[in-house]
Each structure stands twice: as structure tokens, then as C-alpha cells.
Amino acid sequence: MVKRVSLESFLRSRGFAVALAVTCTSLFSVGPIYFYPHLRIGPPQPIPFSHRLHVGVKEIDCHFCHYSVERSP
Ligand code: HEC
User: Fold this and answer.
1) Inter-CA distances, 55 with 8, 40, 42, Å
2) How confident is the model at residue 58 (pLDDT cuts 50, 70, 90)?
3) Does the Cβ of 31 fall within 6 Å of ligand 1?
4) Residue pair 41/32 in contact by the 8 Å Cβ criterion
5) Would you say the CB of residue 60 lies under 6 angstroms from ligand 1?
6) 52: which of 20, 23, 24, 42 is 20 to 30 A away, CA to CA?
7) CA of 72 to the centre of ligand 1 (A)
8) How confident is the model at residue 49 (pLDDT cuts 50, 70, 90)?
């Protein structure tokens, strides 16, 4: 049985307010990094990355980072 909720009561609900706050905070904090890459707001690229450390020392499986490792070149 699906409980019907009116649009007005949904928009006034606490859950909607929290979802809206989280969405807006995310968009305004992290969003510019993705939407305006030419501004170079994020960390300097390329980020130094070592497979020797992650796969060798930490023994993290390839699948953890590369979901398509068995299908893709
Ligand atoms: C902890 C996450 C992580 C794990 C585990 C990992 N990789 Fe990577 N891999 C990366 C990242 C991040 C890059 C991009 C690095 C870069 O561009 O400098 C990358 C890049 C690569 C590349 C492209 C290299 C290039 O020069 O373009 C290959 C091939 C690769 N990984 C294979 C593997 C294989 C095979 C394994 C398992 C033995 C593995 N990776 C495990 C994160 C991971």
C-alpha cells in the first residue's frame, strides 16, 4: 500500500529540507571543481599516484579502483 503525499506537504517536510540543504551545500562547495575545471580550483594535477604503494605495499585489488579491468585495455 503506497501512502500518497501531497506535493505541498512533501515540500514542507523535514526530509525535503535536509535533502535540499545537502544538495545546495554540495553544489556550491564541490561543484565548482567539476563545473569549472579551467579555474583550477582543485588540487594541482596530475596528482602523483603510485601503483607500487597501492598495489604492492597496501595490496589493494585492481578491481577496487578499475571496475572494468578485465574487459578494457
Ligand atoms: C588505489 C587505486 C588503484 C588500484 C588498486 C589500482 N590502480 Fe591503476 N590507476 C589508478 C589511478 C588513480 C590511475 C591514474 C594514474 C595516473 O594517471 O597517473 C591508474 C592508472 C592505471 C593504468 C593506466 C596507466 C597509464 O600510464 O595511463 C593502468 C594500466 C592501471 N592503472 C592498471 C592497474 C592494474 C593492472 C592494477 C592492479 C594490479 C591497478 N591498476 C590497481 C588507481 C589504482
Assistant:
1) 52, 29, 26
2) very high
3) no
4) yes
5) yes
6) 42
7) 12
8) very high
Does residue 30 surpass a pLDDT of 90?
no
Cα 70–chain centre separation: 24
DSSP state of 67: T
> What is the residue with the minimal CA distance to atom 33 of ligand 1?
62
| Ligand 1 pocket check for 64: Cβ under 6 Å | yes
Output the 3-class SS for 1-63. CCCCCCHHHHHCCHHHHHHHHHHHHHHHHCHHHHHCHHHCCCCCCCCCCCHHHHHHHCCCCHH
- Check if 51 has its Cβ closer than 6 Å to any atom of ligand 1: yes
pLDDT recorded at residue 39: 84
